[in-house]
Amino acid sequence: MSSWEETLCRSRHLVSSGAFDKLFGDKYFIFDAIKLLYTDTADEKTKLEQLILIEEFSQQAGVQTSNVDQVVETLLDVFHQLTRQGRDGNVSCQILTTLTTILVLYEQLETETCQSVVQTLLAIVCNGINVTDNRPLRSTACQCLIQLEDVRPGLLWREKDSLIKLMKQERTSVYEDYVLLVTQILQNRISAPDDITSKEKDVDRVITPDSLEYRQIVSQIMNNISLFSQGGLWHIVLDLVNIVQNYHEISATIFKPMMLHHMSTSDTALLHLVVFIQSEFEKEVLTDGEEKQLRNRILAGLNHPSLTPAQRLFYCHWIESLTNVTLDDQEACIGIPDDQPLVFFPSAFDPIDCQLAKLELLNFCFPSLVKEENGQAAALLLGGVGYLHKLVWHTGGQRAARTLFRALFSMYRRHCSKSFSQDINRFLRGLISGFPFFIPHALDFIESLREMTPDSPVYLEILQLLHHQVINTPQQQAAEYCYFYLQVLKRASLQPEIAPQGTVRFLSYLAENSLSVDEGSWRLGIAILSVCQNVLVCHGTRELYVEIGDLLFYLMTQYEDTDVRDKARFYYMLITSSTDEKISMIIQPTTDSQSFHHEAISTLLPNHKAKGHSNVKQLEKSFFCLEKLKVQAETFVDIQCIDEDHTASLICDLKTYYGKLSKYKTVLKTVHRISMTLGPEEVLALCIYFEEDSNCQPLKEIRLSKIKAEENYEFNLDIVPRIPLATKIITRCEFVNDEQTYRGQLADIVVSTEDLIIPLPIEIVTPANREEDFQTLWKWLAEDSLQEGSTCLESVTTVQKTLGDFVSSVRPCLKRCQISANADYATYGIFLPPSYHLLMKASAQQDYVVLRSITDFYQSLLFIRDVI
């Protein structure tokens, strides 16, 4: 094996193993690679491989400012040698690309070395016009010159005339590259004329360009527009648009034939080019009739079934761009016929992004509706969010909710109508009652409304509505979503117009039931006291002395956490020994509505510096391994319904069945194991905490006093699903090592689809008969699916298996839910916590199985294929 072959094998081995540092350990590696290029026995692939290494890793490979001239001259020598021999055309092209990259990377564009490279490139471009054999080489040379001209504007201005002449003579596919080069030079002359003329002292460099010459060049290029590729066409047209805008002697109508030609295209990039030119030269290119034709073309594509959602978003953007309307200009609107606003009305099959874009366009169809009397336009606008509202209501999706709030905000911002505020109240009332975890979005929404219209009463009206809804929430729901409700109370307690009596009663309930709500946690106690602080500052104690005194007395005597008791004692001393004015001077209202404080009050005291107190350091890579060992679903009567007689009620219809089901609670009992694979021998005070997920209730933190290396620690984690959808819960940890606190990321807690598939938990008929329970529930769901507004849905699909193969091949989670099976059919009853169902009947045909399904959670139909 020769020396160059040994070098090649070594480099390939190091590159494939990722050991680049060893490959470039020798500072003269670059010259070893260039030496290989001189070898006649090396094949073309090998030489290309070395050139790409030099281009991508030139700094590591040994190219330095001190030797860059030598590297460039050597590569040029290799290039000239290959061209004289007339072989390895691809290697020659790659050498030109590598040379250009090195010159740009090391800022060598003002040197003689760069001039020699430029002269070589120009020689390639100027020789062999209309010769087909050297097209790749000439094309590469043009692209390299374009790159150099882009980095150093004016570099090729002297060669402008000769390049224009070559462009007009060229008849091969390289014509596009010549046009790109010429338009780049002309564009740079317009963008930075002072820089171009100041860099060259020769007289012929400082010639004022003739507009007639420019017009001839632009005309010649536009006459051959059909020869360009799509990517090249965009670059060329962008430069030509800039030229036409700076030379008023050139008419913008020169673009008209191209625009009319591409107006009917379905290619998004080409149609976008037409819209771009129209927006740049408004009223200068197309007539009124042609503009109307373009607008109708875009409107027709807005709901075209063959277009992807991304393409439809482009169409929406084009309409907004062509009409030049904004939310701030309340009187301007999209000028389309009265019957065409319905084109912007979202459909049930539009993705979320498309629905939002259409609603914004529908919003622009009407001027400000502040003084509208009949309310028809306002009703049409609010009707447009109907599908989006249903999507939020039936899925509880965070993304859909954010989109709904954005749509409502843009409508109110433009119209500020009183009817809008009433309908917004109605929307929020329903959403917050069904999905309390949307409260942060609702608070952000009304805060944005207040910033936009500070004099409008809508902020206070909506906040009063949310406050009234929170303080009248059933106790079970109040305990489950207490932290979301406390955010509302924290905002409401800042408003003197909102009576605080209901707030104090709600806080008293949470304090007295703190053990069952959140195990008497520090976080809950601090959250309650934050609201109390606002009440004391903004409302005083004149009307609440007894109520808030009892609350603070309970917290300072009965609450579990010491820090909470101390802070409650401080507030209790204030209300018993200070006036309201004095209290307002001592404490300030808390305005952070997004989250409550997550540190102890002792760390906020002046001159406090606890031992080991320092900034928390973020670990780039965690050295903990977290894995799930097992999961088991358990369904039992909720502790808050334990006193009710849940066995005596007779289940006679679907409503009573759901009523009984609401008294049950399903928990996924999981066991996880954590171990420390790397890092120190032991860490202290490990806290594992989980980000809130909309698909399940908040998880409690896991605390371990000490973890040693190479030892496994198991812990139990109870997951209560809110929505039966698979999810990944982001998990993080904090721990102490050597008096320093660290924070890191752990593996996500995964709730899979199989974890959520469990057998039906409740007996419907007496005595117990699973088959009869299944048939009864199927009948009830089928009857409910016929009702208007029902969430039940039936589906039929086929599986290309025999019934025997189907029954034996289903996932274990589905086998546990099997109700019955014989030679003709099999039935499966699936319960999806917290309160949904999926029932399936598989009947045998000749060589396939017909699978009928019915569910009250339509998204469950999406994962049927995953379990059969």
Structural features:
14 strands; 51% helix; six-stranded antiparallel beta sheet; 37 helices
Description:
It is a single chain. This protein has 868 residues and is α+β, with helices and mostly antiparallel strands. Helix content is 51%, strand content 13%. The chain contains 37 helices and 14 strands. The strands form 3 sheets. Strands 9, 10, 11, 12, 13 and 14 form a 6-stranded antiparallel sheet that branches. A hairpin with a 3-residue loop joins β12 (825-832) and β13 (836-844). The longest helix has 18 residues, at 68-85. It is globular and about 95 Å long.
List the helices and strands and how they pair.
Elements: H1 3-17, H2 20-23, H3 29-37, H4 44-56, H5 58-61, H6 68-85, H7 89-105, H8 112-126, H9 135-151, H10 160-169, H11 175-191, H12 193-198, H13 211-223, H14 230-246, H15 256-262, H16 268-280, H17 288-301, H18 309-323, H19 352-363, H20 376-384, H21 386-395, H22 398-415, H23 418-434, H24 439-452, H25 458-471, H26 475-480, H27 482-492, H28 501-512, H29 514-518, H30 522-538, H31 545-558, H32 562-577, H33 580-586, E1 617-618, E2 624-637, H34 654-661, E3 664-676, E4 682-690, E5 702-708, E6 712-719, E7 727-737, E8 740-751, E9 758-759, H35 770-785, E10 793-799, H36 803-809, H37 812-815, E11 818-821, E12 825-832, E13 836-844, E14 849-855
Parallel strand pairs: 1-8
Antiparallel strand pairs: 2-3, 3-6, 4-5, 4-7, 7-8, 9-12, 10-14, 11-12, 12-13, 13-14
